């Protein structure tokens, strides 16, 4: 069935996962190796059994049959010598032969057990040997010398016939044992050849199995993974039109489908991102036009708007001086209102112009905050002297920023601390600094009237005043300009909670590269 934009679900063995393929392959390999191992074990067992038969039974039986023949020949030689000479020393071969005969027969009894033909031959040999010994050998060996010669002479013909019978039974036994040994040797050779063939077949099958495993892994695992990796790398290099091939086991196909789905989502996200970038470029163009218009407005505010205000103020004052004796007290009051309004409007326009330039017109360089603070204190020297303010500060670091804006920052903070002083005590202002990770934190602490907790955020909003203009003059732009300056330089500003009277305003600036730690020892102005 078609799914996901024309993709087809795998069917049959194509739905097998890598684990299933590996499990089936390992199981089949194990079965094949088990069969081959069984054949190898059977051939080794057969070869070992036939080798034991030849080495431990057939060959020893033939050897002991030959030893038995030699022992009987020695006995016949001793009997014949004793029967010819009558001397008992000629019986030594006979005596030794009897001992060798018993040893050989004991071994043959054990070696021929289980073989009907060999047992029958051994019984025939025993019968022939027993007849010869009863009728000739023992009578001669037990007789005296003279009797032995006479007995041997009398029974010479029978003795030859009896021993020939012994030789015949021994010959048949050896022929049968030799034939059995030959057959066992042939069987052993055949088993060894079969064993060699089995092990050659095992080696061939293992080699073929290894080739099949290698081919299967290459075709079913490494090949699809290689193609998947190549496609993923192409996508990573930016070829988002490259479709990821789905081959191999079902889980690898699923992985390929997932990667391809991720590629399609990336293509969609890139399309949306491109659209958003286009919109952002349009907004940036609009913002540039707006900034240009704002600059034009600032120019108009600084020149075209201030000039009429100056004229209004000047001519109103001139009207008061020239016609003051003809105007009543109410007219003088109206004229004073007009002059004050024009002056306040001019101050407000100047403050707005200065506020609009923060972050838009700047000269970025290394600024010594020590010198910047001293410059602000010098600018406020009249207010400092009139209020009797005492200003202390730690040794201040150097930061990257606009010197003019940073000077206005100090000037606004210090002038606020002086303006909002307590009526019963002179202002005491302390500027401290400490390092926090990769930032400098500055704190301006005073002993003034303070800021209520509910107004700590409101004071940084432009035109927001906490007191009437009659109580504390100003436009309500100072702290808003401080906030804009600090944020433009990559820092934050806020009002800190304090114990006791006064206000504590903290702000942060980023450290310069390789900036030294601040000196905690303060200076007093």
Q: What are the salient characteristics of this protein?
A:
alpha+beta; disordered N terminus; 10 strands; single chain; 525 residues
Molecular structure report:
With 525 residues, this protein is α+β, with helices and mostly antiparallel strands. 67% of the residues lie in helices and 9% in strands. The protein has 12 helices and 10 strands. The protein has helices spanning 18-85, 92-111, 116-142, 145-154, 156-236, 250-304, 306-323, 329-357, 369-379, 381-387, 403-419, 478-488; strands at residues 2-3, 7-8, 364-368, 390-394, 398-402, 428-436, 439-445, 493-496, 504-510, 522-524. Strands 8-9-7-6-4-10 form a 6-stranded mixed β-sheet. It has a two-stranded antiparallel ribbon with strand order 1-2. Strand 1 (2-3) and strand 2 (7-8) form a beta hairpin. The model is unreliable at 1-11 and 515-525 (pLDDT under 50).
Give a nutshell description of this structure.
The chain is α+β, with helices and mostly antiparallel strands. It is built from 12 helices and 10 strands.
The H-and-E topology, N to C, reads as EEHHHHHHHHEHHEEHEEHEEE
Span from first to last CA?
A: 86 Å
What structural category do the secondary elements indicate?
alpha+beta
Helix content: 55-70%
Could you name the ranges where pLDDT drops below 50 across 5 or more consecutive residues?
A: 1-11, 515-525
Report the biggest beta sheet as strand number plus sense, adding barrel if it closes.
Answer: 6 strands, mixed
- Major beta sheet, strand line-up: 8-9-7-6-4-10
